[in-house]
Amino acid sequence: MAAxxxxxxxxxxxxERVTRLRRELDQAERTxxxxxxxxxxxxxxxxxxxxxEGLGWLALHDVHWxxxxxxxxxxxxxxxxxxxxxxxxxxxxxxxxxxxxxxQNGYTRExxxxxxxxxxxxxxxxxxxxxxxxxxxxxxxxxxxxxxxxTNSGIRLQGLNTLVPAVAALPAVLDTALVPIIHGYLQQxxxxxxxxxxxxxxQFVPQQRSAGQFGPPDAPAATLRxxxxxxxxxxxxxxxxxxxxxxxxxxxxxxxxQFLLVIVVAMMVINYASQYRPAAPTAPQPTPSxxxxxxxx
Length: 297
Description:
Helix content: 40-55%
Structural class: alpha+beta
Shape: flat
Number of helices: 8
Radius of gyration: 45 Å
Mean pLDDT: 79
Number of strands: 9
Strand order of the largest sheet: 1-2-3-7-9-8
């Protein structure tokens, strides 16, 4: 090793570390900015929603996402028009809805649409079956205050300025006496310190639970995949096969006897037909005339 090689190597490693830390810092700054922008958007939507209080609507803000301990639901409205789950989005750039597909700066936002669908479904799962159909999923676009529309999956899009009129225009489907009851129930279920659990197919682990073991985190999905890909049930090849074999032998023997019987009958018919001769007709005898009659004695 030449003089200075060790220091050069340490300098190179230090420079790589600086570059990596700068990338991590830039990512952290972008994340912090996104969270700050999102929080500002949620605050604007929450302030706008207060205009609905005089119309019989009650609101919940920043509550637990049922079944998702580390996620939250921005806003839930309960009123005469039903239960509306509102996800606030403070997006920049060009946001458009074309042919039912939401795009931001040319990129599809289907994952966000799917997230709202999952939120509304999770909230609906907590309600009585008669009230689940009253849950809707909406997105409020803060940076596009006049945008409105509906995606292919049924998620409604409203701008910050169109949100309140759209909610107020919903037809009455919920008894006003039930509005505070449902609101209080959701506040108690979603406003606590922990997220409520939901029973879904993700808990389908019959083998592990019967043995008292829950397995790895992906065990439920793996169990479902294994159950779906199981081979089709096959017939038992044990005693049933021998019984089928025994049942086939008498049937074959009966068929053979029937065939021989048919042959014997056919031969008898042929033999009888060959020996049959129709009787010759009797020649008519002439009636004796008077001249030929014997003289009387």
